[in-house]
Amino acid sequence: MNRIIPVASGKGGVGKSFITVNLGVSLAGMGKTVILVDLDLGASNLHTLLGIKNNSPGIGSYLNKQADNLESLIIPTAIDRLFFLPGDGLYTTAVQQHYFQKMKIIKELPKLVADYILLDLGAGTNHNIVDYFIPFPQGIIVTIPETTAILNAYSFLKSALARSIYRHFPPRSAERDMIQNFFKQRLEGSGNSLFSLADQLSSIDVKHGQTVRKMIETFYPGVIINMGRSVGDRDLGKNLRIISRKNLGISLQYLGYLEWMPEVSRSITRRSPYCLDHKDQLSSALEGICRRIDKIVPEKSIPLYEGDEDLDTLSWTGSAI
């Protein structure tokens, strides 16, 4: 059975794609079969970090009905056991996805044959990113030790949970109205958490409250702090865990801390994965993260309501903190 791990970030420029590629290289070095999937449609660049030309059909071709399935679009890399599924190389319009196109891709991903499938998502909290994160409750959020980046990472987690809970209930239902009203209010500093929403939903049906509590408890993403420059930067991952636990009720796992290294930019320029050419503190930290990921026992996610016509225009899940 494959493990699907989406990798996201609350903002751009935090090294998300760099980390995705090098986690894939490290996992392949551990003897795992890995597929890297470029789902940053509209800004696909994973091929650059792998040293692969952007001339192969990919997910854009699948969305434009030029390929029958995703499996047929996978290409090998120069690294044993590491494979690549390109993004929108031949179809730059793939960034314009509607809800049912996303569901089509999400249903295809589990059919891919690999130990690990790493999804490189875009940055931010728009629907085309969050919808690829929430079906897989043990994704990774990448951030850097800056206040805005930490707050954006928290906002991403909040938006992902809000949309996940909302999507569990059918359109135009009383439950969705209640969820919308809950997230229109400021959660931080109110003394409430998402468990308060579960209690409110229990007033409609006790099972609703139980389900939402289960969704919160099984949402177990990990965080990686990248580009650290001081000892104090290490604590930011712990702080994000505390805030997420207090306000959202989730158990965020601190997967690792990566120090800033000047050689990283040079490896990107050379179009060669960092872990292939370096054996140092950074590559060791990335390998340590892979070992922690490999020890995690995946939780089974709770099914989401699929027949949605209003999710592409839903705008309240990105509420400010």
TrEMBL record:
<protein>
    <submittedName>
        <fullName>MinD/ParA family protein</fullName>
    </submittedName>
</protein>
<dbReference type="GO" id="GO:0005524">
    <property type="term" value="F:ATP binding"/>
</dbReference>
<dbReference type="GO" id="GO:0051782">
    <property type="term" value="P:negative regulation of cell division"/>
</dbReference>
<dbReference type="InterPro" id="IPR033756">
    <property type="entry name" value="YlxH/NBP35"/>
</dbReference>
<dbReference type="Pfam" id="PF10609">
    <property type="entry name" value="ParA"/>
</dbReference>
<keyword id="KW-0067">ATP-binding</keyword>
<keyword id="KW-0547">Nucleotide-binding</keyword>
<dbReference type="InterPro" id="IPR050625">
    <property type="entry name" value="ParA/MinD_ATPase"/>
</dbReference>
<dbReference type="GO" id="GO:0009898">
    <property type="term" value="C:cytoplasmic side of plasma membrane"/>
</dbReference>
<dbReference type="InterPro" id="IPR027417">
    <property type="entry name" value="P-loop_NTPase"/>
</dbReference>
<dbReference type="GO" id="GO:0016887">
    <property type="term" value="F:ATP hydrolysis activity"/>
</dbReference>
<dbReference type="GO" id="GO:0005829">
    <property type="term" value="C:cytosol"/>
</dbReference>
